């Protein structure tokens, strides 16, 4: 069949059955949940790790961000190329195996640098998930429903954060009741180490569920034009991707830059809110887990789902730039709440303001992926998604926690000033995010194509 006939055939093919498509989204969301438990459990363990290893806030921030981010970011590009060229489900299966094993290894480490290396391994495994998941979801879910689908996928992160805190609080309480545990061939494990080992176990379930996912047929493989404009299954060169990104740089700068700044605030808060609760409000690590877990469970899930619903609602009413519009609205909400949430001396008011801040911070969580899939041809989606994740991971995950730690260690020079550091980061980053997102609206509207058929 000639290439043009193949294109028309693929374009006209029906979308997969709705029930199974949403099942796929839910399983991918669960895998993302598990990855975030393994990624974020460290944040609850900061006081215990610092006490045991004798390390500073800046050193902790490198475990939270840089150790994870470097390999997560750089491996994302070749993984994205593999996503664009071959089956995506096996890539995710391999990643789950790697990050689960390395999370358990975190619990067996005895020194700072061993823990740093194990966190690198977690990042290596988790680098496989989102580029492949974005691409799979885009081939299962039509655009008019895709914002909600992506929000459900990203809700896995929100629930994962909550589970890391709530489950971590329970695990810490149980492990502290055990005290130091002597294990044959391993040695003595302290409560924070036992917690890491327990956090690795849900990876077994994620691996098993992922085996039930069928590889979808690829859709809309246009090149050099908006997604859906014409189709081909040939491999796409890096040069063609570079040319396409440069041609449409205004919209990609808006998406990459705006959402990265947004995520910088989010990762900074995620990393240091538990420690803020311990240092400023005097909570124990186990108590902090319950409080922060509920903040993310209520504010995070509400914001993530509302953002996806609002984007789909606006899209259905002709606002094709809905993902960026919703992100701009969320940035406005963050600018009002986040700067004051960690400055109030009252615990109850701080919790309420933090829940509101988290609601707005996570409202656009799935919308960057929606925007990227909408303006990026299919055979570029894995690599462009990996490039986006590179920027977000290095710029937000790598710098977000460390920017807060550097302000605390070297500017305020007071561990109890962590709340002021969080507020400073929010004040600096939010206006820039809003401006960058707004700058891409017109070009985004020009690129977007409705391919719901």
TrEMBL record:
Domain of life: Bacteria
Keyword entries, A-Z: Membrane, Transmembrane, Transmembrane helix, Transport
Main location: membrane
Cell compartment(s), UniProt: Membrane
Annotated protein name in UniProt: MFS transporter
Listed PANTHER family: PROTEIN SPINSTER (PTHR23505:SF79), SPINSTER (PTHR23505)
Gene3D superfamilies tied to this protein: MFS general substrate transporter like domains
Coiled coil: none
TM region(s), chain numbering: 20-39, 60-83, 89-109, 152-174, 194-213, 251-273, 293-310, 322-343, 349-375, 387-412, 418-438
Occurrences of domain Major facilitator superfamily (MFS) profile (ranges): 24-446
Membrane topology: Multi-pass membrane protein
Gene Ontology CC: membrane
A molecular function (GO) term: transmembrane transporter activity
């Amino acid at each position: 069949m000639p290439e043009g006939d193949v294109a028309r055939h693929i374009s006209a093919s029906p979308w997969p059955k709705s029930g199974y498509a949403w099942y796929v989204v839910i399983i991918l969301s669960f895998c993302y949940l598990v990855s975030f438990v393994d990624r974020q459990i460290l944040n609850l363990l900061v006081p215990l790790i610092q006490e045991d290893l004798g390390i500073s806030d800046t050193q902790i921030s490198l475990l939270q961000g840089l150790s994870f981010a470097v390999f997560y970011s750089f491996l994302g590009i070749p993984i994205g190329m593999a996503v664009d060229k071959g089956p995506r489900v096996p890539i995710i299966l391999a990643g789950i195996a790697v990050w689960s094993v390395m999370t358990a290894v975190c619990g067996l480490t005895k020194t700072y640098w061993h823990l740093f290396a194990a966190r690198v391994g977690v990042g290596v495994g988790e680098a496989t998930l989102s580029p492949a998941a974005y691409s799979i979801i885009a081939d299962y879910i039509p655009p008019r429903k895709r914002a909600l689908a992506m929000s459900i996928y990203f809700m896995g992160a929100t629930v994962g954060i909550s589970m890391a805190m709530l489950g971590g609080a329970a695990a810490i309480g149980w492990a502290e009741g055990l005290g130091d545990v002597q294990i044959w061939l391993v040695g003595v494990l302290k409560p924070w180490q036992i917690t890491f080992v327990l956090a690795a176990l849900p990876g077994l379930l994620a691996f098993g569920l992922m085996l039930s996912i069928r590889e979808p047929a690829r859709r809309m493989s246009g090149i050099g034009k908006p997604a859906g404009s014409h189709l081909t299954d040939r491999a796409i060169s890096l040069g063609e991707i570079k040319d396409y990104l440069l041609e449409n740089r205004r919209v990609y700068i808006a998406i990459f830059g705006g959402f990265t700044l947004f995520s910088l605030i989010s990762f900074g808060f995620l990393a240091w809110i538990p420690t803020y609760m311990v240092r400023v409000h005097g909570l124990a690590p186990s108590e902090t887990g319950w409080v922060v877990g509920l903040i993310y469970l209520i504010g995070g899930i509400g914001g993530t789902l509302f953002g996806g619903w609002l984007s789909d609602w606006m899209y259905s009413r002709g606002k094709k730039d809905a993902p960026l519009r919703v992100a701009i609205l969320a940035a406005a909400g963050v600018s009002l709440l986040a700067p004051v949430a960690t400055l109030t001396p009252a615990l109850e008011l701080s919790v309420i303001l933090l829940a509101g801040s988290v609601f707005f911070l996570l409202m656009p969580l799935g919308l960057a992926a929606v925007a990227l899939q909408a303006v990026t041809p299919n055979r570029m989606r894995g690599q462009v998604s990996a490039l986006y994740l590179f920027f977000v991971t290095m710029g937000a995950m790598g710098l977000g926690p460390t920017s807060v730690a550097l302000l605390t260690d070297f500017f305020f020079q007071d561990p109890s000033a962590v709340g002021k550091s969080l507020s400073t980061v929010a004040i600096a980053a939010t206006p820039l995010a809003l401006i960058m997102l707004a700058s891409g609206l017109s070009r985004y509207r020009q690129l977007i194509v409705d391919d719901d058929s």
